[in-house]
Design brief:
Length: 302
Amino acid sequence: MIGITNGAFIALIALGYTLVYGIIELINFAHGDLFMLGTFVCLSTLTLLGFGTEVGVAGTPWLALLLAMIAAMIFCGVLNVLAERIAYRPLRRAPRLAPLISAIGVSFIFVNIGLYWQGPTPRRFPDLLPQYDFMSQLFGLSTLVRFTFKDLFVLSLAIPLMLGLAWVIRSTRIGKAMRAVAQDTEMSLQMGIDVDRVIAFTFLLGGVLAGAASLMYGLYNNNTVFTLGFTAGLKAFTAAVLGGIGNVTGAALGGFVLGLLSALTVTYAGGQWENVGVFSLLVIILVFKPTGLLGQQVGEKA
């Protein structure tokens, strides 16, 4: 189950990459570091509420977890919108290399904010979820497969968030506007769609998903560090490309495939081969299907 659970983290972050690319064809390299800052927000919020790592807790403080997740979602969403407004929007009609370099610059800014905020050493999350393995307790299968309360917690949050995102894109007015802007920006402007508002909302959605993923990651792995964004972002970007960059369903699928492949590689070949297995699959997929698993070949936007 660890492969599916890690796949859920990767998928939620990958959705932020693919949403932004689908709208403005920008690879937002700062997105992984935004996720890292979200874990710091969760940790700080839980500490302020009295649930630090040194404090014993006799139960799961669900209200505190909810407040921490909401705080991270708001923080990441607003910060992502500000990054779009300040760093990306002025360069929207510039050569494509300019916003790409700008995204790398924003990534470095986020990393240094995290470094100043929590320092260079890894920080431990409080262990607030029950240590309960359903398979061993109910079926006596602990040596074969594990499905813990932590796995249930992550999947019960991640899957509804993905389904909610799909509903927003397919069934709401702003979602229809997002699809229109992704297809043809100039025509959308002529039809009266506020393109700037749609793009800002897209960045908001990506940030909100990253904020939610940050709480799940922290509670599942019980640690965070300022360099977390690089590895998480790289895997999420790989998942987005694997599924088909710009395709929401493909990003989710790519995340779960990547999570399962990583777990299988670690189990049968060792942790040192994890990235080798992941990126070997990526190379194979891109050689035989450059658009990814669910991507389609389309012309460049005007």
